[in-house]
Amino acid sequence: MSGMKAALVAPTWPLINDVFIPMYSINIFRIGDFLIGDYEQNSVATLIIQFWHRSVAYIVFLFILIFYIWNSIKIGVRNNYILKLFLIVSIQLLLGILTLCYSVGKIPILLGVLHQIGGIVLVSFVFIYFYSSHFLNDNERNVDKE
């Protein structure tokens, strides 16, 4: 995303240039035509990548929100790792939206770098959560039973 300067092609939110779904983004039989070759100079390829980047971000956000609520209500466990993961994803989503909205004419470097650092923090935290949930026993985990 950053190397393509994708935010400059569609610096609008929540719509991507006045549409929810750019017409080339969902035609899986034609995506390869736009992504192969000199894709960095192709604005259609940039829109496709931006659409899927946003879509995955929204899906991850909703999945973690639902997972936290389900854990809290159905299982009766308040898992601090999931709450922290939700907060990190929320901050990452907000940084992405702010970076996008302030990318009129040029990319705001500080927001872009913070968004990239947020991605590193998010992936690192997922590895920490995976490790702690699979390799530590209940006494070593940060889990409170209600």
Would you spell out the secondary-structure blueprint of this structure?
Layout lengths: L30 H5 L7 H33 L1 E3 H22 L7 H27 L7 E3 L1
Antiparallel strand pairs: 1-2
**CA-based shape:** elongated
**Total number of domains:** 1
Main sheet specs = 2 strands, antiparallel
How big is the Rg?
Answer: 18 Å
Share of helical residues: 55-70%
**Beta fraction of the residues?**
under 5%
Strand order of the largest sheet: 1-2
What does the average pLDDT come to? 79
The number of helical segments is 4
Describe the structure.
By secondary structure, the protein is mainly alpha-helical. It has helices at 31-35, 43-75, 80-101, 109-135; strands at 77-79, 143-145. The mean pLDDT is 79. It has one domain (6-145). 60% of the residues lie in helices and 4% in strands.
Key traits:
146 residues; mainly alpha; two-stranded antiparallel sheet
In short:
The chain has 146 residues and is mostly helical. It contains 4 helices and 2 strands.
